[in-house]
């Protein structure tokens, strides 16, 4: 049963050809077998999941209506609040935190009758590109257990790739869905900023964070978007229905985009590893054979994206993480002498090195005398980058580029070199700065049998066309059908 996509499983369950309980039990059998090796989950909820699955089966047998994800086992990244289990953000400071409410996306999954099997591991507070910064456990890549799964949604992507669930939700602040999706050979979508509610998502960079689906196929991504997208009055950054009306992403998914114009950015394409470049070129050739026109665009301000991003993201992080003070909730140091020691020792003991680094960088950028020189200037560069994308989309329907400069790197290879780690996001962060949607789809493998992802970017609110463009390629290839062989 684990060879099915989420949509295929949903359809079989709805038709009475499969049981949600059987599918959920199969997932937990696989988790029991492979989780000690992969390390995808921080926590699982077997009893709760099987109870939900049994309820779906009962309602279908009784002819009662069920939701769009009825009976499908899914995972969620552990920075989305749930009233069941802990919400840790991969951090020791929240190791025992119990949220008092569900995130909006969790409520939508439950309303769609999805079966939530667990909370996935992640880089602490979503700060990282390899999931090595998790304060709680290690996650490996199912394609090669000596390699990282990517980050920060590494646990969620490893769970989907390793068939430890049928789909998952991750969050993407600078590439944290698309980069691990590329490394693990699955599909990962970062929607337009505001398209999916962030209410209940523990904040890292509030103007950059976006929740999105991680799946095995483009159709599964469309299905997940049907469930989670839409306006949420609880989220002040959620886009109004009048601006971004509801859309059925599955309805026209198999319709090709006519007169498709694809933009490429030569200076970025040339910066990737040779095998990544080859896979990208071959993917573009597939589109050419389908009638697409290729145009070159110049986006000069993308050269400054990394610098602007790491000023804006760390500044917002330093503000958002100030609330973890050892007083209200979270870890508190034992026997402090005074409140200064409560704050300083609690944070020093429970935050990891990367989180501390980013808090200090952000605090510096926002400090008196440096705000204009760093933060304000970064915001101006962000506007220039948005202008580059606007210009590019006047000439094209989408932009194609690599997801990452390389395939999945070795565990420990970059952990002591923050700059090299940051550069692994060089192709993904611009989409977050501009707020536009982007997707990673499998487009090949390197000589070591490691997956390579194709990144496609579209204009604001262009998810419907973006998914159709991605599906055009998926129908012509079989990369997404390949599965890792995991040694246990």
Short description:
The protein is built from 16 helices and eleven strands.
- Contiguous low-pLDDT stretches (5 residues minimum) are none
Named at the architecture level, the CATH assignment of the domain at 6-258 and 403-481 is Alpha-Beta Complex
Number of strands: 11
C-alpha termini separation: 20 Å
Quaternary structure annotation: single chain
Name of the CATH homologous superfamily of the domain at 6-258 and 403-481 = Amidase signature (AS) domain
CATH class of the domain at 6-258 and 403-481: Alpha Beta
CATH T-level fold name of the domain at 6-258 and 403-481: Amidase signature (AS) enzymes
What is the string of helix and strand elements?
HHEHEHEHEHEEHEHHEHHHHEHHEEH
Radius of gyration: 21 Å
> What fraction, in percent, of the residue positions are helical?
25-40%
What order do the strands of the largest sheet run in, or round the barrel if closed? 1-3-2-4-6-5-10-11-9-7-8
Beta-strand proportion? 5-15%
Structural class: alpha/beta
How many helices? 16
Overall geometry comes to globular
- Major sheet, described briefly? 11 strands, mixed
Mean pLDDT: 95
What does this structure look like?
The chain has a domain at 6-258 and 403-481: Amidase signature (AS) domain (Amidase signature (AS) enzymes), CATH 3.90.1300.10. The chain is 39% helix and 12% strand. The protein has 16 helices and 11 strands. The chain has an 11-stranded mixed sheet, with helices on both faces. Helix 2 (20-38) packs antiparallel against helix 3 (46-61) and helix 7 (218-228) runs antiparallel to helix 16 (463-476).
């Amino acid at each position: 049963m684990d060879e099915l996509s989420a949509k295929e499983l949903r359809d079989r369950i709805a038709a009475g050809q499969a049981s949600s309980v059987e599918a959920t039990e199969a997932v937990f059998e696989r988790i029991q077998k492979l989780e000690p090796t992969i390390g995808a989950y921080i926590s699982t909820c077997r009893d709760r999941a099987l109870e939900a699955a049994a309820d779906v089966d009962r309602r279908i047998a009784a002819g009662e209506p069920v939701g769009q994800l009825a009976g499908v086992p899914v995972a969620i990244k552990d920075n989305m609040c749930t009233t069941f289990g802990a919400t840790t953000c991969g951090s020791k400071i929240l190791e025992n935190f119990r949220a008092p409410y569900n995130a909006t996306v969790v409520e939508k999954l439950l309303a769609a009758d999805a079966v939530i099997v667990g909370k996935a591991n992640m880089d602490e507070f979503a700060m990282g590109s390899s999931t090595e910064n998790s304060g709680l456990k290690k996650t490996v890549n199912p394609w090669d257990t000596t390699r990282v799964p990517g980050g920060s949604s590494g646990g969620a992507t490893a769970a989907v790739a390793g068939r430890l669930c049928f789909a998952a939700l991750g969050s993407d602040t600078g590439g944290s869905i698309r980069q691990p999706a590329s490394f693990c050979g699955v599909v990962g979508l970062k929607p337009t900023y505001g398209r999916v509610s962030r209410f209940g998502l523990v904040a890292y960079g509030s103007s950059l964070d976006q929740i999105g689906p991680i799946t095995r196929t483009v159709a599964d991504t469309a299905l997940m978007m049907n469930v989670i997208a839409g306006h949420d009055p609880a989220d002040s950054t959620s886009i109004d229905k009048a601006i971004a009306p509801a859309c059925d992403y599955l309805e026209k998914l198999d319709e090709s985009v006519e007169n498709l114009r694809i933009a490429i950015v030569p200076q970025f394409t040339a910066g990737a590893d040779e095998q990544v470049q080859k896979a990208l070129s071959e993917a573009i050739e597939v589109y050419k054979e389908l009638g697409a026109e290729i145009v070159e665009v110049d986006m000069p301000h993308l050269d400054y994206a990394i610098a602007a991003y790491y000023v804006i993201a760390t500044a917002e992080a330093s503000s958002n993480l100030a609330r973890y003070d050892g007083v209200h909730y979270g870890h508190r140091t034992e026997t402090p002498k005074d409140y200064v020691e409560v704050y300083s020792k609690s944070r020093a003991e429970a935050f990891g090195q990367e989180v501390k680094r980013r808090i200090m960088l952000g605090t510096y950028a926002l400090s008196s005398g440096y705000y204009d020189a760093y933060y304000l200037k970064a915001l101006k560069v962000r506007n220039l980058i948005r202008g580059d994308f606007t210009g590019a989309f006047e000439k094209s329907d989408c932009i194609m580029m690599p997801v990452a400069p390389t395939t999945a790197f070795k565990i420990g290879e970059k952990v002591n070199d923050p700059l090299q780690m940051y550069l692994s996001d060089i192709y993904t962060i611009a989409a977050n700065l501009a707020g536009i949607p982007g997707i990673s789809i499998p487009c090949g493998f390197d000589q070591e049998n490691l997956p390579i992802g194709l990144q496609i970017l579209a204009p604001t609110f262009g998810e419907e066309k973006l998914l159709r463009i991605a599906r055009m390629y998926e129908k012509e290839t079989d990369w997404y059908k390949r599965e890792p062989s995991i040694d246990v």
